[in-house]
Amino acid sequence: MDLVFGSVVLGILSGGIYALMAVGLTLSFGVLEVINIAQGMLVLVGAYFSFALEHYWHIDPLVGLLVTIPALFLIGYGIEWAFLRPLRQDRVALSILVTYAVALVMEGLIGLWFGDNFVAIHAWYVDAAVDVFGLYIPYIYILGFALAIVLLGAVYLLLYRTKFGAALRATVQNRDAAVLIGIDVQRISTLTFAIATGLTAAGGMLFGATNAFNANSMLDLISRLLMIIILGGMGSMGGALIASLIMLVSVDVVSVVWTPNWSTFAFFVITVVVMVLRPQGLFGAPPARKV
Amino acid sequence: MKTRAALVALTASTLLLAACGTTTSTSSAAKSPIVIGVSVSLSGDFSGDGKAILQGYQMWVNDVNKQGGLLGRKVQLKVVDDDSTTQQTLTNYTTLIGTDKVNLVFGPFSSLLTIPAEQIAKRYGYVLLGPAGGAPNVFAEKYKGYAFVQPASVVNNLLTFGQMIDALPAAQRPTTVAYATSNDPFTQPQLPPLQAELTKDGVKSVSYQVFPDETPDLTPEALKIVHSGAQVVVLGTTSVPQVQAFVQTFVQQHYTPKAIIATSGPDQGSQFATAIGAANTEGFLVPSGWTPTANTYQNGKFVREYLAKYGGTANAIPGDAPEAYSVGQIMAQMVAKTHSINNATLIKALHDTTFQTVQGPMKFGPYGAPVGGGTFLVQWQSGATQIVWPTSIQQANFEYPKPNWK
What we know:
Chain A contains twelve helices and two strands, in the order H-H-H-H-H-E-E-H-H-H-H-H-H-H. By secondary structure, chain A is mostly helical. In chain A, strands 1-2 form a two-stranded antiparallel sheet. In chain A, strand 1 and strand 2 (135-138) form a beta hairpin. By secondary structure, chain B is of the alpha/beta class. Chain B is 38% helix and 18% strand. Chain B has 13 helices and 15 strands. In chain B, strand 14 and strand 15 form a beta hairpin.
């Protein structure tokens, strides 16, 4: 097994998982102009739902997505309706505070229901792997990457091949103008946030299958997801995917060819260079954001 | 609109409760309780250990109050959350001592957080008993009011593993070892003494990695170990997720070392088993200073009370809880001996006494390092932990080589 080959392959595949977790964050910003600090917690809620289905009812985590995606969709719908819709001014700044508050409440509730112990999601495909040129590639990473492509592709089709998508893109370009031409911006915003949260259920399941977690894992996660969407370009779905791949591959390759001590630093160097050359991120497009 | 307002109000009030970093356990009877300030990790990376530490403190407070308290006064804990950060720990102890004027303080989880706690205790002349602060740089503060309440300094934690490997028949002894450690001050100092010991015994180091504690993905580090093909793996981990990350990659890559030991993680009982899968715990080693079956001072009582209060099984009791309980036991013995809660008086009593704890007898050097004690090795066997070394207190034979992952 070649170490660099292994780290590149696994970095790309696990990058797909991070993309799935980050895409909800970037969609929320693109359409609602909110920075959803609760995204890390929503990933964990998705992970806990999958864990509960697998641990207590022996439902396969992949099958369980049929339950967890709608459940997270409803939670997202509720959060937007109760906490984000009332924000009229300074949405970006206020949304940070409001979603952080929402995250803290969810953290408390998850702690109450599931306790503080670290847990992980188990399934046969989490530990099993296929031999490719001497490197065992775990099925969970292959599944995760495939799921990311399928779900992100579905969102792409929704955005570019449906009337809802056209309305959503119009909202992204100019909220006020969208209202003037008769688009129900509020409904679009609510549905977009709900869809973004629903997608997070899949990211949560994959996160929980590849990491041990508890309710306090939120802060580590959100800082990484924020870095991804900043590098990729706030509001850009493709940017989230590419930035995830850059993050995971750069960290993994630097770890194996140099030292783990500089692996995260390498990603930050890349981010700083990109920020200097393109302050809007790799795929951000000022002044209008693209989804 | 009303519904939304109600929801927002409900959330705000819940938030207030959830975010409130301060909880106080009340004692209704006494007019003037002895207040002990505690900063523990109730959130952040160390929250699992921090909450177990708090369990131990609270159990001791309950026990001591049942017996009439200290010097006839009830004991009350004032607990604050340090969010697993050094800065918050610094703030917490400054507030507890400088503003809240607590009578005594107990230590936080981890060497990383004990250092700022110790600096504040030193500034105000408070005695500080640390349940989990045994790294060399904690003792380097040279504070006579500090004591590390575990049987041995962390630098010696893994030496028993070296002794056990050395005791294997020559034909079975491994020839290669791989090390990977977090840069945490608790774990990193533990590996070099073991490496020196194993090298002396002819076990060659084929990989040695130090990774930042906050590394998001440990797959490359695990792959490096797999690539090295080492027969023994030594992990300097600080948490269950770190061990889980290594094990998951080892399982996926079909790599089973003959022996594997981790500095922290396998001591976390049931949550370790839940995280890596119960079947994969088999053969895992961890150094420990406490076991539920040890015949030490009040240990049986501690285990019974813990299980009655928190449930589970004796093997699932996290090691942090008895360590914290021991802190209380030592404080009670110091107060009983000096008939005082004056910190300067207590500091004088800290160094000339052998204290009895659930972890066994303890004595401390001038700057708080434990003297004369030692850790033992615990191995997961058939879903439970057993002492396998030293042979004088052995509960089961060392399972070697470790069976394949399931």
